[in-house]
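RECORD TYPE: inverse folding
INPUT: structure tokens
STRUCTURE:
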């Protein structure tokens, strides 16, 4: 219609043309997909905001300007990717039971939040690329697929596959940054040229970059009815045995944006623990020695910019000290590893790591199992490893010590330890878990 109208615009009254063209656009139902991965939240989520916002589209035919909504309907999708529930190269479950349960809870919470706002979350037990392709083939009018940009090879391989199937089916994949405190576009250097050491990175970032304000996601558009959606799979359906977090755990971690925001409020405002964070952060026992935000940050239930904004509110209204700064300092550590994974690429997973360290490692399974099962005979190491197995959690101090013991005292291949942490930690983050200094 628009092409024909353009060709014959001289014979059509300009106001008549505008009414006809705008009516034509309004009659077209446009749709978009939001593919959730490690962004299982609605607050401060640019992927969600971009998909749901009303945009203006302007096209000029002499003096006529046309506008339409970017998408009338938005389909939110999450995939339980079978590849995440396979085994690692050393034979461990790639996602262990406790982390899988935390993910299930996070997905369920997102689904419930979307439903309360008049949308829904489509669940698929499939790879993201196959799920997106199926939806594109079965639902008309989808022009865009939104997803958060990640940095490591397994995740970027998915992005390439989703981009390919989107293009093949007349849609465009849009990759949007959203996992760090400081936006990648606001760094004082390209990520590929960043410092290899944290302190120079931190100083340059602090002197020239500021975290952006958290985004407010407005009213959500409706979803699309009639799309097949699977039930959230049980642990057994994922090939895992059901395990409960031990009652002695530092916290009874529960996945989801709701629990994440509750913990944020409790830690900063209810208990005001942020005021003593620097003094207590190296503790080992109890729920209050550190923030414990990492599980929710890991799968995107909690935005680091929202954490930062709450800290700044606390500083402005109650107290600003070394402790309030130190939690921001730790968020910058998280950014450092995320951006560094862009620079070093797959060398992150090489035996010698990004620094190409030459060392002959042992893969003695019997000795590794002593470490894994907390039976080395060294009480501090064993206690931490048992805590990990029974709760999916270990303190930062504990992680550093048990990793050092495995590699430097036992001489065991660090990749065995990294894969075990990947399987067991509920706050497993690929870029920080695999970095070897």
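DESIGNED SEQUENCE:
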């Amino acid at each position: 219609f628009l092409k024909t109208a353009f060709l014959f615009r001289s014979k059509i009254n300009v106001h008549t043309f505008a009414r006809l063209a705008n009516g034509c656009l309004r009659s077209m139902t446009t749709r978009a997909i939001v593919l959730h991965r490690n962004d299982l939240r609605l607050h401060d989520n640019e992927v969600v905001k971009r998909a749901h916002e009303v945009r203006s589209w302007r096209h000029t035919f002499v003096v006529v300007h046309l506008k339409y909504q970017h998408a009338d309907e938005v389909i939110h999708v999450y995939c339980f990717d079978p590849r995440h529930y396979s085994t690692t190269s050393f034979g461990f479950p790639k996602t262990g039971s406790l982390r899988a349960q935390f993910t299930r809870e996070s997905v369920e919470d997102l689904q419930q939040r979307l439903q309360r706002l008049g949308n829904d979350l489509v669940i698929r037990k499939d790879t993201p690329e196959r799920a997106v392709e199926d939806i594109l083939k079965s639902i008309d009018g989808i022009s865009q697929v939104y997803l958060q940009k990640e940095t490591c090879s397994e995740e970027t391989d998915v992005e390439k596959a989703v981009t390919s199937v989107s293009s093949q089916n007349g849609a465009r994949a849009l990759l949007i940054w959203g996992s760090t405190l400081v936006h990648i576009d606001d760094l004082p250097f390209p990520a590929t040229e960043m410092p290899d050491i944290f302190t120079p990175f931190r100083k340059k970032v602090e002197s020239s970059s500021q975290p952006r304000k958290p985004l407010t996601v407005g009213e959500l558009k409706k979803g699309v009815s009639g799309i097949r959606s699977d039930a959230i799979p049980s642990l057994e359906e994922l090939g895992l045995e059901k395990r409960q977090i031990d009652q002695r755990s530092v916290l009874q971690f529960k996945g989801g944006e709701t629990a994440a925001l509750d913990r944020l409020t409790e830690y900063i405002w209810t208990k005001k623990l942020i005021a003593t964070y620097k003094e207590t952060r190296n503790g080992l026992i109890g729920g209050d020695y550190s923030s414990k935000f990492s599980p929710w940050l890991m799968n995107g239930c909690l935005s680091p910019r929202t954490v930062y904004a709450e800290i700044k509110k606390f500083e402005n209204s109650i107290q600003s000290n070394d402790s309030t700064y130190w939690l921001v300092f730790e968020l910058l550590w998280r950014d450092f590893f995320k951006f560094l994974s862009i620079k070093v690429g797959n060398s992150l997973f090489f035996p010698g790591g990004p620094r190409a360290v030459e060392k002959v490692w042992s893969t003695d399974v019997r000795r590794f199992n002593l470490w894994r099962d907390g039976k080395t005979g060294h009480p501090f190491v064993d206690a931490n490893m048992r805590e990990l197995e029974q709760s999916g959690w270990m303190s930062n101090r504990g992680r550093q010590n048990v990793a050092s013991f495995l590699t430097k005292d036992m001489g065991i291949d660090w990749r065995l330890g990294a894969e075990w942490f990947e399987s067991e930690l509920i706050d497993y983050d690929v870029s920080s878990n695999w970095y070897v200094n």
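NOTES: The first strand starts at residue 31 and ends at 36.
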